[in-house]
C-alpha cells in the first residue's frame, strides 16, 4: 500500500466500522500518458517536473490530490493522478485526454492521453474458475473454497485496540470490522505469530512509503454469502480512517486466498511446526542454562584453587 494521505473530502465515504473510525471511499485515480518527441539535439532533455506542472495547469482551477510518475521511458512518461471525488474524474479526463502540451525550448507538441485507472481486483469469474479447475481443492471443506479474503498493506494502527500506546493490530478488531459482511469462521494476522517468520522464511512487517507499519491478514467467512458481500463492498474502494485527527486514506491490496491458508489441514500443520520450534527454543534455552551453570561452576572451582 502506498503511504496513507490526508482526505480533504469525505462526502463519498460509506461506513465500514464506525466504532473504529473506518470507512470506505471510491478509488478516484486516473492514468495519464504523455508521448515524448525524439530528442534530436545531444545533451537536451525533457524535464519530468515541467511536464507534471503543465498537467496540473491543464485542469484549470481543480487540483489533483496526488500526482506521481509511475513510469518514465525515452518514448513516454506515465503519471498516476488521484482526485478527491469520483464525480471529478470525468471533468479531469475531459481537460486532459487528447490534449497537447508545448514545452519551452521544444518545437514538438506532446500528446496527452488520460483514462480512468484500471483497478486490479479479482472478479467472481476469477475465483469461481480457480476453485472449479483446481485439482487439489475440495470445495466442501473450509479454506478450499472461495471463503477467505487476503488483505495486504493494512495500517497496523488502524486495527489496533483503542488503548494508549497500542500499535499492533488485533484479531478481535479485525473480526469486529469485517463481520459487517457475515459471520466469520477464522482470521489470521501472520505478524502476530512470533514463530511465523522462521516457519515461512518471510518478513511480515512491511512499511509504506510514509514509514507506517503495515500488516497482512486473512479473513475467512462461514458462508459464501459473507465472502461475496465483503469482496463486492471492497471492490474499487480505498480505506479511510477518522481516528486520531485528520481523515487518512490508504489502498490495501485485496485478493481471494488460493493457498488453503485457513483450511483445517494448514492450520494444523502450522500448529505442529510452531510446537516443534517452541520445543527447539526450550532445548536451546536449557542448553544455555546448563552451559552457564557449567561456566559458573568452573569459575568457582578456579577461585577455590587460587585461594587454597
UniProtKB/TrEMBL annotation:
UniProt keywords, alphabetically: Kinase, Transferase
One MF term in the entry's GO annotations: protein kinase A binding
Region Disordered, annotated ranges: 278-308
InterPro entries with a match to the protein in the record: AK17A/B (IPR056852)
TM regions (residue ranges): none
Organism: Myotis brandtii (Brandt's bat)
An annotated GO BP: regulation of RNA splicing
Domain of life (superkingdom): Eukaryota
Annotated protein name in UniProt: A-kinase anchor protein 17A
Amino acid at each position: 500500500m502506498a503511504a496513507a494521505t490526508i482526505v480533504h473530502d469525505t462526502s463519498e465515504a460509506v461506513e465500514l466500522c464506525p466504532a473504529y473510525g473506518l470507512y470506505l471511499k471510491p478509488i478516484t485515480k486516473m492514468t495519464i500518458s504523455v508521448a515524448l518527441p525524439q530528442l534530436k539535439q545531444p545533451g537536451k532533455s525533457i524535464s519530468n517536473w515541467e511536464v507534471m506542472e503543465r498537467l496540473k495547469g491543464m485542469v484549470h482551477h481543480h487540483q489533483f490530490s496526488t500526482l506521481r510518475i509511475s513510469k518514465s521511458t525515452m518514448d513516454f512518461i506515465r503519471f498516476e493522478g488521484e482526485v478527491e471525488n469520483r464525480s471529478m474524474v470525468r471533468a479531469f479526463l475531459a481537460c486532459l485526454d487528447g490534449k497537447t502540451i508545448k514545452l519551452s525550448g521544444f518545437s514538438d507538441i506532446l500528446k496527452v492521453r488520460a483514462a480512468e485507472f484500471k483497478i486490479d481486483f479479482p472478479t467472481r469469474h476469477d475465483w469461481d474458475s480457480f476453485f472449479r479447475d483446481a485439482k487439489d481443492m475440495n470445495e466442501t471443506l473450509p479454506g478450499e473454497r472461495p471463503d477467505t479474503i487476503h488483505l495486504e498493506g493494512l495500517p497496523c494502527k488502524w486495527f489496533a485496540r483503542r488503548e494508549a500506546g497500542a500499535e499492533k493490530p488485533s484479531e478481535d478488531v479485525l473480526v469486529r470490522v469485517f463481520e459487517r459482511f457475515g459471520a466469520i469462521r477464522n482470521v489470521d494476522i501472520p505478524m502476530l505469530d512470533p514463530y511465523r517468520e522462521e516457519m515461512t522464511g518471510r518478513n511480515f512487517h512491511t512499511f509504506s512509503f510514509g514509514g507506517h507499519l503495515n500488516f497482512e491478514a486473512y479473513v475467512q467467512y462461514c458462508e459464501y454469502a459473507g465472502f461475496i458481500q465483503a469482496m463486492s463492498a471492497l471492490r474499487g474502494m480505498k480505506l479511510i480512517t477518522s481516528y486520531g485527527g485528520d481523515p487518512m486514506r490508504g489502498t490495501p491490496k485485496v485478493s481471494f486466498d488460493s493457498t488453503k491458508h485457513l483450511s483445517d489441514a494448514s492450520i494444523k500443520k502450522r500448529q505442529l511446526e510452531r510446537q516443534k520450534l517452541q520445543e527447539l527454543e526450550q532445548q536451546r534455552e536449557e542448553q544455555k542454562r546448563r552451559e552457564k551453570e557449567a561456566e559458573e561452576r568452573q569459575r568457582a572451582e578456579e577461585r577455590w584453587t587460587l585461594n587454597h
